[in-house]
Each structure stands twice: as C-alpha cells, then as structure tokens.
C-alpha cells in the first residue's frame, strides 16, 4: 500500500476528505474559508498524505489570500457577539467558536457592540478574530487594542485571524468526516 494510502486509511477523517466528490469537497472547504482560490488550491492538492500536510497546505494557500479576498470574506462573517442563526455547519461552528461570550454580562456585551460599531466606522469592515477558546473580556481587549492599528495593518491582522479561523474549521471538517466514517449509514 503506498504511504499516502496507508496514512489516509489510518485517519478516517482525512480519508473522507480525500474521497469526497470534487464539488462536495469545494463546498466543504468553502465552509472553512470562502475564498475561491483557496478552495480550488486545496481541492486540487488532494489526496493529502496526512492531516499535517493538509493543514500546512491550507495555511500556505491562506497566506496568499489578497486584501480584496479578505475583505470579501469578512463581509460574510457574523460580528463578534452576534449569534449565528440556523443549523447549517457554518452557523454551528460560529456559535461554538464564540462560546466564550455565553457568560458575558450585559455591560460586557454592550461594550462589544459599541466596540464593533467603532471598529466598523474606523476600518469599514467587521472586527474579525479567531474567538475559539477566548473569553468575552479577552475579545474586548483585543478589539480595543486593534482600534489603534492603521487600516493597512488592521487588514493584515484581520487576514491572519481569518486564516486562523480557516485552520480551526478545517480541523473540525476532518473531525466531522472521521465521525461520519464511524456511522454505518454514512459509509458508501
């Protein structure tokens, strides 16, 4: 068995991603980062020999995302502190990523809303941060610190955060494929 086939067989999540029909693969990758060039590069790179290889490629391709692509992707993200509605994958992931806001009191939520509004006035796009594992107070402190950035610097920071979210979501996609492989009804 070739090395990439053996690695893929040992990792049902990776095997699932490698085996997806190309259109479904594109749709799944777009849930992680809805930037066409990134999605296409990842889809063309299949099959991946390991999760590490896939994540490294995803990070490399995400680093090449342009300012315009970042701005377009920002327009599709929910604001920090706003609950994503629906049961689709992206909404569930967003709620999970922002779970640190669940215990925030009304004053902290109001400060985040005000900070979001100030940020949007200053930069012309939403405040985006990889919120996974971070508390509401940490997110507010980050938001306030980033208000001191100039627009070009902030676009780079937002791009870095967008890439971090993409990698977190790609890991979730791999985990979901692994879980699906364990369910008999999910097997082809």
From TrEMBL:
Name all Oxo-4-hydroxy-4-carboxy-5-ureidoimidazoline decarboxylase domain ranges.
18-171
* Catalytic reaction(s) noted: 5-hydroxy-2-oxo-4-ureido-2,5-dihydro-1H-imidazole-5-carboxylate + H(+) = (S)-allantoin + CO2
Give the pathway: Purine metabolism; urate degradation; (S)-allantoin from urate: step 3/3
GO biological process terms held by the UniProt record: purine nucleobase metabolic process; urate catabolic process
User: EC annotation?
Assistant: 4.1.1.97
**What GO molecular function annotation could you give as one example from this UniProt entry?**
2-oxo-4-hydroxy-4-carboxy-5-ureidoimidazoline decarboxylase activity
Its EC top class is lyase
Region annotation (Disordered) ranges: 81-105
The UniProt regions of compositional bias labelled Basic and acidic residues, in chain numbering, are 81-98
Is the Lyase keyword given for this protein?
yes
Keyword Transit peptide among record annotations: no
In terms of Pfam families, this protein maps to:
OHCU_decarbox
Keywords, in A-Z order:
Decarboxylase, Lyase, Purine metabolism
Q: What is this protein called?
A: 2-oxo-4-hydroxy-4-carboxy-5-ureidoimidazoline decarboxylase
Instruction: Output the lineage of the source organism.
Output: Bacteria, Bacillati, Actinomycetota, Actinomycetes, Streptosporangiales
């Amino acid at each position: 068995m070739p090395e990439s086939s053996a690695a893929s067989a040992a990792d049902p999540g990776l095997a699932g991603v490698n085996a997806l029909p190309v259109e479904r693969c594109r749709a799944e990758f777009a849930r992680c980062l809805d930037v066409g060039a990134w999605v296409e590069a990842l889809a063309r790179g299949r099959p991946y020999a390991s999760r590490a290889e896939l994540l490294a490629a995803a990070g490399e391709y995400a680093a090449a995302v342009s300012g315009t692509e970042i701005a377009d992707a920002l327009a599709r993200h929910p604001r920090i502190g706003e609950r994503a509605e629906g049961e689709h994958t992206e909404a569930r992931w967003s709620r999970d990523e922002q779970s640190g806001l669940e215990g925030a009191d009304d004053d902290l939520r109001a400060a985040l809303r005000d900070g979001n509004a100030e940020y949007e006035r200053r930069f012309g796009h939403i405040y985006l941060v990889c919120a996974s594992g971070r508390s509401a107070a940490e997110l507010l402190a980050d938001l306030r610190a980033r208000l001191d950035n100039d627009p070009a610097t902030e676009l780079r920071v937002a791009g870095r955060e967008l890439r971090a979210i993409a990698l977190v979501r790609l890991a979730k996609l791999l985990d979901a494929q692994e879980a699906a492989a364990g369910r008999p009804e999910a097997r082809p």
